[in-house]
Amino acid sequence: MIREVKVERIAEAVRNLCIEANEDLGQDVLAAFHRAKEAEPSPVGRDILDQLIENARIAREEHIPICQDTGLAVIFLEIGQDVHLTGGDLREAVNEGVRRGYGEGYLRKSSCHPFTRANTGDNTPAVLYTEIVPGDRVRIWVVPKGGGSENMSRLFMLPPSAGLPGVKEKIIETVKEAGPNPCPPTIIGVGIGGTFEQAALQAKKALLRPLGSPNPDPELDSLEKELLEKINRLGIGPQGLGGRTTSLAVHIRLLPCHIASLPLAVNIQCHASRHKEALV
Amino acid sequence: MSKTVTLNTPLTDDQVTALKIGDRVLIHGVIYTARDAAHKRLIDLLDQGRPLPFEVKGQIIYYVGPSPAKPGRVIGAAGPTTSYRMDPYAPRLMELGLKGMIGKGKRSQAVKEAMVRYKAVYLGATGGAGALIARAIKAVEVVAYEDLGPEAVRRLVVENFPAVVINDAHGGDLYEEGLKKYRLE
Fold it and tell me: What domains are there in chain B, each with its CATH number?
């Protein structure tokens, strides 16, 4: 059975999710702040974590953004193959949702021309990824992504000989070089394998997994734990002021790759790890 | 020992040189905002030998692009942006008497040297605490480049604006010291 979904419903859902994601930090992130505070030996580090907890409370209660960098609007749509989208252009509906969300929600518009730096004025175009899946529903994720942590992210096309040791080394090196810049404590999204662009997209998708949840693959799960421990030995700490909470988690996604390649993408997410989802 | 210092703007050389890395400061008075695009315009003006839209002598520039103010509020969220992007411009402004910069993240060697030479200080505010920091901002007025939207130069009146000294006028660097203290080999 084909189910009709008006694109206006997608627009309205995107609008609401843009606002909600920017004002209401996920409970999984808050719980990770509290856990980190228990373990953090640096008094300054603990003080920063307290500020982040307080900041999230103010944002939620007073309906103001958690962070002024309300990001580019990264949007994932999983569209059921039995859905018939009606009433207009889907991409335009998503952009309209972003326009309304960033306008009516008093969110910052951060989208600009690469050279002239002229602002598009409404935070469009959305960074939209669509995927066709079984079913008759549309699942929407809105993931506002800030510039500071995105700037510290890296993509490597390693030789296959680099292997797992080379991958580990590059992940640690990326976090070390980023230091205080991407607003630690961070979450490290890692995409291994695939093609050049697929590795980067996997790294970003890895950030959507709830904090504190295990990787479904036991080997990747233990690799995540090993990398997190190594990262937290670097000493960078909350806001880079020194401490043992440099990252809250490492999340890895892995895909087969070309026999000639070993792509690796490291997408750093600041502590304002914002994403909300809805089902239409 | 780090201490908590109340800083009233504009700043004097004596106020700046008394600050040491790790000191917590609470800023009172006027500070100015400028980030990427505004810095480029300010330096373009200097290159053309023209005056800046505000007097930088003794002032603090806050690297921030706030979110829009909701009705009834003076500003939206207003935490710091990453500072290294302003590194190519900062020494010119310090040469003209800029005494403080507020941001987050590492500065270049050239900026650190300029802070020692011109007696200036780099203060870190908590990145991503935009809702919390906004509480310290009591009044806002756009003074230049309104067309830049979030990147316009704004004059802020702040009370108890919290920050920590990252780089002092004596060559100290809190990021390096913090790393040394907590790094495990």
Answer: 4-182 (3.20.130.10)
Give tens-digit pLDDT for B50-69. Answer: 999 999 999 999 999 999 99
Q: CB neighbours of B79 closer than 8 A, spacing ≥ 6?
A: A67, A68, A69, B64, B104, B125, B126, B127, B128, B129, B130, B132, B133
- Neighbour count for residue B10 (Cβ, 10 Å): 18
Asked whether the predicted pLDDT for residue B2 surpasses 70, the reply is yes
* Residue A23 near residue A60 (C-beta atoms within 8 A): yes
Active-site entry in B39, B104, B112, B154: B39
pLDDT of residue A1: 85
Interface of A with B in 185-224 (CB under 8 A): none
CB-closest option in A64, A240, A272 to B134: A64
pLDDT digits (tens, 9 = 90+) for B123-148: 999 999 999 999 999 999 999 999 99
Residue recorded with tokens 């802070």: B115
Number of helices and strands (H, E) in chain B?
6, 7
pLDDT under 70: residue ranges of chain A:
none
Name every chain B residue with its beta carbon within 8 A of the beta carbon of A151.
82
Q: For residue A271, give the nearest of B5, B32, B110, B79 by alpha carbon.
A: B79
For an interface test with A, the pick among B24, B75, B108, B132 (most A C-beta atoms closer than 10 Å) comes out as B132
A58 touches B: beta carbon within 8 Å: yes
The full set of domain ranges for chain A reads 3-22+66-145, 148-272
Q: Please, which residues bridge with residue B139 across strands? A: B157
